[in-house]
Amino acid sequence: MGSTSDFSRRALIKRAAALGIVTVPAMSALSACASSGGDGGEKAEKGQKSAKNPLAVNESAALDVVIFDGGFGDKYAKDAQAEYVAAFPKTKGKVKLASTQKIQSTLQPRFNGGNPPDLVDNSGAEQMDFGTLVSKNQLADLTPLLDAPSIDDPNKKVRDTLRPGVVEMGQFGGKETWIMYYAYTVYGVWYSKTNLQKVADAEYPKTWDEMLAVCEKAKKKGVAGWTYPGKYPYYLPFSLYPFIAKIGGAEVLRKIDNLEPNAWKDPAVKAAFDAYYELYKKGYVLKGSPGLDHLQSQKAWAEGKALFIPNGSWVENESAKQIEKNPDFQLSVGAPSSLSSSDKMPFGTIWASGGEPYIVPREAKNAPGGMEMLRIMLSKKSSQNFIKQVSSLTSLNGGTEGLKLPPGLDSAQQALRTAGQNIVNPRLQDWYVALQKEKIGVGALGEMMAGRMTPDEAITKIQKYADETREDSSVKKYKR
Question: Its principal location (predicted)?
Answer without folding.
Answer: other
